[in-house]
Specification:
It contains eight helices and nine strands. The chain is of the alpha/beta class. The chain has two domains: about 160 residues, 3-Layer(aba) Sandwich (Rossmann fold); about 45 residues.
Length: about 240
Amino acid sequence: MGDVDSSQYGCLVVSCSELSPSEPLVRGILGSDHDPDREAALNEVKSCTWNLNTKYYTAKVPMHWCDEPYRPDDKLLLPYIHGLVLYCNTKQIDGSLERASEWLSHCNEAQVILMVIRTTHDRVEEEEEPVELQNWCLKHQCELVSWHDDKGIQRIQEALSAHPWPQLQQHSPAREEGIEAEGGDHLTSFEELFTHFSELKEKAEGLTGEERRNFAEKVAMQFWKACGGDDDEISGLVDDD
């Protein structure tokens, strides 16, 4: 593809049935902080920006969605699609799979491929997940996601967020050097440190001797930095790691 702007790599949500319009699914994926109408283009493929913010990176990912079958005009967009979400309807299995196959055959760069079906129960009934869908997903190495409530949306978000987007920006080293709380969360701001103070105190009480001293020094330094203190002002007061 030659030199390309990495910011163009994004997701495409496709409705494979007129009974399952794509926009409600897009709204669920984007969450309440995004309004897909705000940047939607006045054509068959609509677009907006998904501001991804994970524990490890941030990324502005173009989000596209379409309710129409594949058209040759769409081929200019498809080389930049790394995430493909095929929204099917179990009441129109044959038509849904036919349209899904057509889109998939043109999305050669897609690295995350999900087939989503709307279900009416938390426990997916056999008739809601027909064997034809399961076989199609196995054949095309595609994950089948049942969308009943927030769990289905969360799974879609997790799968797309796990992809190493070319335009991602990793969090600064300062975030990674913070105090680690229970659960592996890194604490760097004063508010985070203060909120978890009792947890840090309990962790220190579980240490002995030199370990407790080193941990206390690290906590004190982190509080100092969070309050805007300069490293040079406390240089030599504590041992370097």
